[in-house]
Amino acid sequence: MMARMHDPAHPGEVLREFFPEGMTVVEAARQLQVSRVQLSRLLNGRAAMTAEMALRVADWTGTTPESWMENQILWDLWQAAQQPRPKIERAKTEPVVT
């Protein structure tokens, strides 16, 4: 089970920390073999970390794709939890007898 974070960083914000000093988005995008627009959207929190991008980023940073996907899930859950939602009653289930 994943621990809940308080206002976790978007994966793009975390990815910025891996950029070598002075590296441009254009150069990083070239190394990741994605478009500058695609990488810029991720870095600016306007796009999600996809499984495909997580694989590329993991190879590029020496991390794991699971860590990038977990970060995206935590961010998504935090964002969703900040929105109003209806009261949901717990399902009343009966134990299965075999």
Helix-strand blueprint:
Blueprint (H helix, E strand, L loop, with lengths): L10 H6 L8 H8 L3 H8 L7 H11 L3 H17 L17
Helix pairs in contact: 2-3, 4-5
Can you give me a brief rundown of this structure?
The protein is mainly alpha-helical and 98 residues long. It contains five helices and no strands.
Count of spatially separate domains: 1
The CATH class = Mainly Alpha
| CATH homologous superfamily annotation | lambda repressor-like DNA-binding domains
Structural class: mainly alpha
Order of helices and strands: HHHHH
Distance between the termini: 29 Å
Shape assignment: elongated
The CATH topology is what? 434 Repressor (Amino-terminal Domain)
CATH architecture: Orthogonal Bundle
Q: Could you walk me through the main structural features you see in this protein, from its secondary elements to its overall organization?
A:
This protein is mainly α and 98 residues long. The chain has one domain (11-80): lambda repressor-like DNA-binding domains (434 Repressor (Amino-terminal Domain)). The protein is built from 5 helices and no strands. The protein has helices at residues 11-16, 25-32, 36-43, 51-61, 65-81. Helix 2 (25-32) crosses helix 3 and helix 4 (51-61) packs across helix 5 (65-81). The two termini are 29 Å apart.
